[in-house]
Each structure stands twice: as structure tokens, then as C-alpha cells.
């Protein structure tokens, strides 16, 4: 069984090799460690290896970890579906939200961001494969939601997030990311600098098509365990 240190070294090496293969600068792709269902101790172990960005999907579990790790300089990302009754806590306790897919949620996050905190970094989730089982806006809706979210005072719109339909073939993995990257580039907005693309199974394809942040969980921490999901 590999150690957490060995897992992190392996994933960082994979990212580096994918950057080279895509003729991209070394260090142009950040690693978001998806720590949902993992304990605060596991997060602390990853922190000691130099990891600073962690992604969570289950609010109550995340808040418990944040409290336990209050002395750590962690950047917390919320990456799960957002219910209206959870926006206040998300706005108060996270630095990034990757899963905004409607104006109502964006407005609540802006209104509920505590005074004195910097604007909340936002990615819009796009349902790039058009799957009925997944959250996210359709690609055609993106320009309008971009304009609407940009106008909200306590948010900083940074880019987009996508979870395409799983594909095993490399060129098919690349296609939806290419489509979304080109759509965002066509908007001509330099401030949209974040492409939250790629997970363990399609990391290389995502980086080839412009990912700036890959969301990796099981390859770093092992298989998920049961946790409180509130």
C-alpha cells in the first residue's frame, strides 16, 4: 500500500509530465486535493507535504475539518452541489466555490459573504456533456451567466468547472474540454483565468486542453470512506 507521500509524488509527477507533453510551462497547473470523506488528520498529513488547496463537497464535514485545522494556512474550495440553505456557511467559510450553476445561488453567496473578507472566488459549473444526472448550465447559457455573476459585488468570477461524461479514450477525453476552453476564450475576458478541469482518470487530456487546476481525490488519498454528508 503506497504512503500518502508516495501518492502525492506520483500525482505531481503526472501533472509535470502532462505539462511537458502539452508544451505548457512547468507549474502552470495547480493541484486541488479533493479531501471529502477524509479526516482532518489526513488533510494535515497532506499539508505537511506542501499541499495548500483542498476541495470539499459535504458542508458539515468540511466545517468540522476547518475548525480542527484552524491554525493551518489552507485555501478551501467548495466543489459540490449547492443548496440554497447552505449558501451562508459556504460564503463565510470558503475561499473558492467551483459549482455555481444559477444566478440565485450566486446572488446569495454575494449577499452573504461576510464584511471584511475578500471577494469569493467563483467558477461556473458547465454541464459540458449535457448529462441529466449532473449539475451545471448548458454551454449556450454561459455568456449570460458570466455577465450576471460579474456584476455581483462580493464575488470574483475566475473561470469554469466541468465534469464531462467519463471516457476511456484519450482523444474523446480531450474533446469536451477543448469545446469549453474555446467557448470561454471567445468571451475575451482576461480575468477568466481558471479552468477547473480534470480528475484522476483524464488528467493528461484536461491539461492538454488548458486546465489550470486538476481535482484529484482517490489517487492521493485512496478510496473514499463513508462520512457525514450534510
From TrEMBL:
Sites of the modification N6-(pyridoxal phosphate)lysine? 36
| Coiled-coil zones | none
Q: Which Pfam families match?
A: Ala_racemase_N
The cofactor named in the record is: pyridoxal 5'-phosphate
Keyword line: Pyridoxal phosphate
Provide a Gene Ontology MF annotation, just one.
pyridoxal phosphate binding
Q: Which InterPro entries match?
A: Ala_racemase_N, PLP-binding_barrel, PyrdxlP_homeostasis
- PROSITE patterns assigned: UPF0001
Q: Which Gene3D superfamilies match?
A: Alanine racemase (3.20.20.10)
User: What name has this protein been given in UniProt?
Assistant: Pyridoxal phosphate homeostasis protein
